[in-house]
Amino acid sequence: MTSTQAARPRIGVDVGGTFTDVVLTTADGAVHPAKVPSDAARPAAAVVRAVTEVLRRHDIAAEDVEYFAHGQTFALNTVLQRAGARTGLLVTAGFPDLLDIGRLRLRDPIDFFAAPAHPLADRRDVREIPERVRADGTVELPLDERALLDAVADLRASGVTALAVCFLHAHAHPAHERRAVELVRAAHPDLVVAGSAELWPEEKEFERATVAVLAAHVAGLLGGYLADLTERLRAAGLRCPVHITKSNGGVMSVTGGAHRGNESDADGRAPLRAAVETLLSGPAAGVAGAVRLAAAAGVDRLITMDMGGTSVDCTIVDGAVPYSTDSALGDFPLLIPAIEIDSIGAGGGSVAHLDASGVLKVGPRSAGAQPGPACYGRGGTEPTLTDAYVVCGHLAPEAPENSESFADGAVTIDPEAARAAFRPLADRLGLDVRQAAAATIDVATAMTHARLLPLLARRGVDPGATHLVAYGGAGPVQAVALARALAVPRVLVPWSPGTLCAFGALVSGLRQDLVTSVGETTATLDDTRLETAWKDLTERALAWYAEQDATLHTTVTTRRWADVQRAGQSFTLPVVLPDDAPATVAELRRGFAAAYHAAYGVDASAAELDVRNLRLTLTADAASPPLPSATATGGAAPRPHRLYENGAEVAAVKVARADLPAGATLAGPAVIAAPDTTVYVPGGAVARVDPAGNLLIDTGVARGEAG
Amino acid sequence: MRSSPVTLEILTHRLTAVVEEMAETIRRTSFSVFVKQTADFGTCLVTPRGEVFAAPRTISGNLMIGIPAATAIASLAPYAPGDVGISNDPDGTGGLVTHLPDVWLWAPLYAEGRIIAYAFSFVHASDIGGDVPGSISWHHTDIHQEGLLIPPAKLREGGRLNEALLRTAVANTRVPEENRGDIEAQLAGLATAQRRIDEITATFGAAAVTDAVEDLLDEAERRATGILRGFGDGSHRFVDYVEGLRAEGRPAGTGEVLVPPTRLAVELTLTDGRPHLSFQGTSPQVAEAINLPTGGEPGHYMLVFALVNYLVSRDPGIPYNSGLVRAVTADLPPGSIVNPGPGATCGVRAAVFFRIMDCVLGCLAQAAPDAALATGSGAVAIATVAHTDPTTGRRHVAVGQPLTGGSGGRPGLDGLHGTSYTGGWLRNVPNELLEQDVPVLVEEYRYRPDSAGPGRHPGGAGIVLQLRALADGVTLAVRGMERLEFQPWGVAGGLPGAPGRAVLNPGTPGERELGRVNVLELAAGDVLRVETAGGGGLGDPAERPAADVARDQARGLLTEDAARRAYDVDAAPTRAGRGLFDVGPARRAHEARWPPPLQERLIAALDALPPARRPAAYRRAYLAAERAAGTGPITDAFLAAALRAVIDQKETRS
């Protein structure tokens, strides 16, 4: 890659519920964030508007852009609103309630009034197909093709517009399921048909069926959205490859290779894969961006804290990004590897109120984006956490008092409205307005802390050795208080915390995860089987790569890993094979013994092992991914600011983030105002600007300044 | 309140974090199936008096509210920092332990030089020794068959591990390495508790913490009594049964009685919101291993589970602690099945625990008919498949498949299908994994049509599991089947759910009803079909909207015939005269044969015997009266004769 190519403009976009964020990198190496309101009805239109606007602002011709990647919540919202296709499901006879039964466990096993969970494919749209394959591949009952086609005709007549197929053991012995999918596609070329094993060949019938149903439900609309987006971008003059972010923190091509649109895609599989691989992509891109920035700052142990209006989303990165193969998406499990993100606490819109005992509670009800916090002046009157920050002076964006610009001018902050909203609550608590607001912040901090601590314990991570990386609109306001409660010594606030997801989309590499089932113990398993299986996965991964528009992603690496358990136990550990190690049982054994000892302190080096799945991950990082560098040269001096902390109003300073050059330090109490958020640096904490423009805040816990 | 409304909320979160962190630590570092698969473990914090003030809601099984901790605490006093107690002894811990596989650990938590609380945890060990793998069998009659007993002892003293005790304990089990790992996981969990209490008290001070704890307990009590006060004063009684055993191979409810049913009678008296639970009229302790050791503790967790869940469901924000049951008083007759004497067998005490839950819901239904719930399948059976490989001779055991049925109809809501509030935390095993593990073919795993009790809000459907052995040498153990005879009852016009059943080789000449199953050897080609009970219905089926009935039919939950029988206004039989509850024909027949006053007379007469003698005497007298009565009802005369034989024996022997 030559330097001229690397220096051409690139664009990353994140489509959120309220805002569509854009990050543009330009020829001079600068990184420019921007924000426009989202368009719920036509999300692609908002994307193109944002792109056009940012290009115009920086006077760049669309055809000069060399790369475009975007994260979308379209697929996720389609699932959560159940707005996709009416989806039918074909199952092995004897298992009609596969989706309804699921894994049995109730979400709250003691709530007598819990509403039942409803599958995405209604039981009325499930058909049992006479066929049966045993676990060893023996055909117990041949596929009844006539019954199959009759069932599909019946479903179509009743209004089903997409179909999922999941037969028992298809992950290992796919012949029946594959034949069924082929027959249906041949008989109904216009019907979206998702086979469970072709999408994700992993054992566990309920979870695999869910993958197929999610894909079938979303594929049609997502395909339409992506086609619309591509068309609009082309019309706007973009000629570069178009990528979308995936739940695994990587990206995939929309244009080029396999993605030539639904009609030219013979079996319609590309949108199906895109549907299930991108479901959790929005927050994943943010984590990918945070990890990238942290790595550049020399930090590899971190807790990401993405705090928006409705929730706080956290990922614990202990050297490596954690991947979960049992994420949840509303009511549905997702087997396909996704960055492990836990939604743990009260977002800025959470409403403060008193419960039946007169105790101060924050949330779970949220004022959301509409009407939003009282200080947004959009009709909200209840006191929210964001209002509490405003009352205490912790959230104080740039611009003059009383008409402050926030979120790039999209929101105006009205401190008096925030104070008014807190007055009734303060009266009932017998406190003044600022005390009530401070109490609200303390309660929110305790809640988030209480949910984060068990998550750290789940992974055996010591918070004292990590950084908290705070982003989202409210993250940098809340971060130091949370870090102190957790005894985390440092907070890192990225250069542009409000557009980190868009930045993540821009810098993420191509990534594909593949799985194949083994289900054999080391009593019989031989090296040849491992070698053959991983070779096959590697070939499939490379075939996927060949279909990508990988102009900028030329360095390919693959990683082999496996799900292994002790024979007779029922929980696996991931075992990663070193890159240069041969694919042998002995290597797996070595890796497993180490992982097992780390987790349980027990020596399992002589145990019989049960190898459930082999996995392969292909990554191809973007050549010379753009990284921001601090551009501020030191402008206006800090202005005096008053804020409320530790029960008293104190003299503080306020400075615009744009006025803090690399290397500048600022001791709290202070607020650092930026177009997209405010960074609150409490007394006892010290902020420093790193060369990339990130803020590193020493929380003071290591020095005993605060606890 | 002693605390400010702000500090109280902050400390609530901080204390909850402690028990959840303990639970996550145990889950991460233990490696037994009961922790990983069925979440059968727990953690909590208790006051020095022994009241639980913090417990996790969602990580593990929810059985911590009301644990009696005082006896266990006192048994090892005085404590020093670094001490940890251990026990699995029901008698020695005053009912903290309710069966031997539950290994409990506890540790004092210090702040400012004094004990401000104790941390407790338990893990259900996959095996604790005794005469069967897994250590649990309905047939145990002697507690020493149930495994190793560890009376309360200090596993760690002043930070020093008693390695001899630990080694001896785990060596007496079939899975020593696993048990050691689980105990070490619990030690790690307890250690995090002290560390976090140090942090919290350093910030807030010990006094603020103890004040908040008292406030939280008081608030739970205040809000609980507030809810119950709304029901008005009154006494409400409900009787239900744990089934006995009949001669095998006959349809449910027929065949000679070999083991009598166990009677559970609960009277809930509400006085100004304060509940009193009387168990007078409840069976004496029995020979089967279903006795429930409660230590006579009124608010014992296995007595109040339904009440606690009811309160938490009604008021989801109520503090979740033992204050919820502080006002509970109880009459637990010594020597009865709910307060047995020392040494009573208790492996399957869950059967009684579940039935008490039904009785309490029955009482609450009378206290508040508008908020009544019908009962669910009332059982959790665990099906475990084992196979002995003919070539290697090695025995392989597949993880158990939990089999539970539907929940009862709920106010404004239909029942939950396939699972219920007894064991709602259990996860099933994917059939693909089961079939890879052992040579069986699962022919059906689905909801059971027509099993739900009809009603305005029907109960939930039961589950069908049908499997075929693909090889000889397949052993099936099914533990905990119940409601094969006495159906889950319906409420307020709702009908009872279908009873469960288990049948070998259905639809063949060799078809055989299996009753509770227990352990079954299958030859290649043998088919076992288990059908779990459906939940009882709530409200008059005639009031169920036709569209809902049609939807149930379209979803395969209801056949056309059954829909007509239950929901067709013209065809359905009148429900007049059935009262608040519909318990179904089998129970009505049982009570016609054994009139309740005679049951109570039998039970009362055994009070004269020492507790250890009651199990045999109860069974003998019951069976003697059965035999004497032939097919007719039990009469005063038959019962008197049967009792005379038992009492005479007592007099000649003692």
UniProtKB/TrEMBL annotation, chain A:
<dbReference type="InterPro" id="IPR008040">
    <property type="entry name" value="Hydant_A_N"/>
</dbReference>
<dbReference type="Pfam" id="PF01968">
    <property type="entry name" value="Hydantoinase_A"/>
</dbReference>
<dbReference type="GO" id="GO:0017168">
    <property type="term" value="F:5-oxoprolinase (ATP-hydrolyzing) activity"/>
</dbReference>
<dbReference type="Pfam" id="PF05378">
    <property type="entry name" value="Hydant_A_N"/>
</dbReference>
<protein>
    <submittedName>
        <fullName>Hydantoinase/oxoprolinase family protein</fullName>
    </submittedName>
</protein>
<feature type="domain" description="Acetophenone carboxylase-like C-terminal">
    <location>
        <begin position="528"/>
        <end position="690"/>
    </location>
</feature>
<dbReference type="GO" id="GO:0005829">
    <property type="term" value="C:cytosol"/>
</dbReference>
<dbReference type="InterPro" id="IPR043129">
    <property type="entry name" value="ATPase_NBD"/>
</dbReference>
<dbReference type="InterPro" id="IPR045079">
    <property type="entry name" value="Oxoprolinase-like"/>
</dbReference>
<dbReference type="InterPro" id="IPR049517">
    <property type="entry name" value="ACX-like_C"/>
</dbReference>
<dbReference type="GO" id="GO:0006749">
    <property type="term" value="P:glutathione metabolic process"/>
</dbReference>
<feature type="domain" description="Hydantoinase A/oxoprolinase">
    <location>
        <begin position="208"/>
        <end position="513"/>
    </location>
</feature>
<feature type="domain" description="Hydantoinase/oxoprolinase N-terminal">
    <location>
        <begin position="10"/>
        <end position="186"/>
    </location>
</feature>
<dbReference type="Pfam" id="PF19278">
    <property type="entry name" value="Hydant_A_C"/>
</dbReference>
<dbReference type="InterPro" id="IPR002821">
    <property type="entry name" value="Hydantoinase_A"/>
</dbReference>
TrEMBL record, chain B:
<feature type="compositionally biased region" description="Gly residues">
    <location>
        <begin position="403"/>
        <end position="412"/>
    </location>
</feature>
<dbReference type="GO" id="GO:0017168">
    <property type="term" value="F:5-oxoprolinase (ATP-hydrolyzing) activity"/>
</dbReference>
<feature type="domain" description="Hydantoinase B/oxoprolinase">
    <location>
        <begin position="5"/>
        <end position="541"/>
    </location>
</feature>
<dbReference type="GO" id="GO:0006749">
    <property type="term" value="P:glutathione metabolic process"/>
</dbReference>
<feature type="region of interest" description="Disordered">
    <location>
        <begin position="395"/>
        <end position="414"/>
    </location>
</feature>
<dbReference type="InterPro" id="IPR003692">
    <property type="entry name" value="Hydantoinase_B"/>
</dbReference>
<protein>
    <submittedName>
        <fullName>Hydantoinase B/oxoprolinase family protein</fullName>
    </submittedName>
</protein>
<dbReference type="GO" id="GO:0005829">
    <property type="term" value="C:cytosol"/>
</dbReference>
<dbReference type="Pfam" id="PF02538">
    <property type="entry name" value="Hydantoinase_B"/>
</dbReference>
<dbReference type="InterPro" id="IPR045079">
    <property type="entry name" value="Oxoprolinase-like"/>
</dbReference>
